[in-house]
Amino acid sequence: MPDLNEQQIRKLVEEAVNQLGSNASGTAVEQVVHEAVQRMQPGSVTPPPPVQAPGQNRIIVTAFGKNRTGILAGLTGVLAEANCDILDLSQKILQEFFTIMLLVDISSSSLSFDQVKEKVVQTGDTLGLKVIIQHEDIFNTMHRV
Question: Where would a tag sit more exposed on the chain, N or C end, judged by fewer CB atoms within 10 A?
Answer without folding.
Answer: N
